[in-house]
Amino acid sequence: MKDSFGRNIDYLRISVTDRCNLRCVYCMPEEGVAPMSHCDILSYEEIMRLVGIAASRGIKHIRLTGGEPLVRRGIESLIADIKKTPGIETVSITTNGILIPEKFEMLKAAGLDAVNISLDTMDAERFVRITRREGFEKVIEAIKLCEASGIRTKVNCVAMRGVNDDEFVAIAELARDLSICVRFIEFMPVGKNDFEKCVPWQEIKETLEQSFGPMADDTSRHGNGPAVYFKPDGFKGSIGFISAMTCAFCETCNRVRLTAEGYLKLCLQYDKGVSLRDIMRAGATDEEIGLAFEAAVMEKPKQHIFNDYFGADDIEERPMNKIGG
């Protein structure tokens, strides 16, 4: 499925819940947020119907997000069902990892292909300050469990100046002895204006090379996203950078997002899209929903402009937990 700029859109990120068992400082207020009602979010049956329609239009890769996707009951069955959908090649999740140890065997049996685990610090006390919850040891256990099982494992670190910019080397060290990708994500001001927290990826790379030496380009395929990868000498794993602020990668963007309430979101920065839930619940046929999907994709913006936040129209104001990571 092509958009109006000729980009092949084959990757759909689906938020299955706005609820989370952490309260990360860059995602959610300490007191939490009023959760959506169950009738507002998509049922599993509705998600599966939309996955089938999306697959018929060329979507090949599904990533389940939240909130925290593992807090939704029965998520393992949803993964297994999506894996059986004709045309779907991979199913992955983005998670904080807290619940992976207790759900691991079920996730593996469901056929989970890959996991992105969020971790912004290697210090247990700082973990509590960032997430406002305990759980550091469970996250480390989750990373090791997934890596040892052969599930493609990435660790996502949101790089924040004044928060964790003294730990980049320690976090990257996870990839020394584990066959994982540790990825540093430039802080994006989605729903807020915290521009000063962004640490450019080149600065992070220079910091790492002061400890590890020059890092060779890693051209191996590590998934379906926009990260650029490098491999330090002696490392089993790789180091990646997602540079949405300093190096827009929009010309190769291949994704759209489906929020928990069924809104097909075309770009992370903009509040543009269409409510597939409303169309579906109004009695539309699969063909009509598919045409709405295709029409929305044709409206996908050419690029985001986070660095010109105040010069853009239709800026997204919802926090990340309402959008899906």
Could you walk me through the main structural features you see in this protein, from its secondary elements to its overall organization?
With 325 residues, the chain is an alpha/beta fold. The protein is built from eleven helices and twelve strands. The chain has helices at residues 44-56, 75-83, 100-110, 124-131, 136-149, 168-172, 174-177, 201-212, 276-281, 286-297, 320-323; strands at residues 11-15, 61-65, 90-95, 114-118, 152-159, 181-186, 216-218, 228-231, 238-242, 255-258, 263-265, 273-275. The protein has a twelve-stranded mixed sheet. Helix 2 (75-83) packs parallel to helix 3 and helix 3 packs parallel to helix 5 (136-149). The longest helix is centred in the middle third of the chain and has 14 residues, at 136-149. The two termini are 23 Å apart.
Helix content: 25-40%
Shape from CA axes? globular
- The low-confidence runs, each spanning 5 or more residues with pLDDT under 50, are none
Radius of gyration: 19 Å
N-to-C SSE string, H for helix and E for strand: EHEHEHEHHEHHEHEEEEEEHHH
What summary fits the major beta sheet? 12 strands, mixed
Q: What percent of residues are in strands?
A: 15-25%
First-to-last CA distance: 23 Å
Mean pLDDT over the residues: 91
Instruction: Give the strand line-up of the largest sheet.
Output: 7-8-9-6-5-4-3-2-1-10-11-12
Supply the number of helical segments.
11
SS content category? alpha/beta
The number of strands is 12
Write the layout of secondary structure elements.
Elements: E1 11-15, H1 44-56, E2 61-65, H2 75-83, E3 90-95, H3 100-110, E4 114-118, H4 124-131, H5 136-149, E5 152-159, H6 168-172, H7 174-177, E6 181-186, H8 201-212, E7 216-218, E8 228-231, E9 238-242, E10 255-258, E11 263-265, E12 273-275, H9 276-281, H10 286-297, H11 320-323
